[in-house]
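hey m, so remember when u said the tokens were messed up on ur end? i reran from scratch. heres the input so u can diff it against urs
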Amino acid sequence: MTIRKNYSKECELGAVSLLIDQEYSRTEAARSHGVSANMLGERTSGW
């Protein structure tokens, strides 16, 4: 059984903001907020 991490909305939005507004790479934005790069890919796949 896989355990999913739950990130706060503020954390997710902050990382997505770096990715979109400040043109960070997905890996850089994820590292700076302590989230998974895959999570960012899921959150930004439609943008």
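this time it looks ok to me. DSSP finds three helices and no strands in the chain. if urs says something different then somethings off w ur setup not the seq
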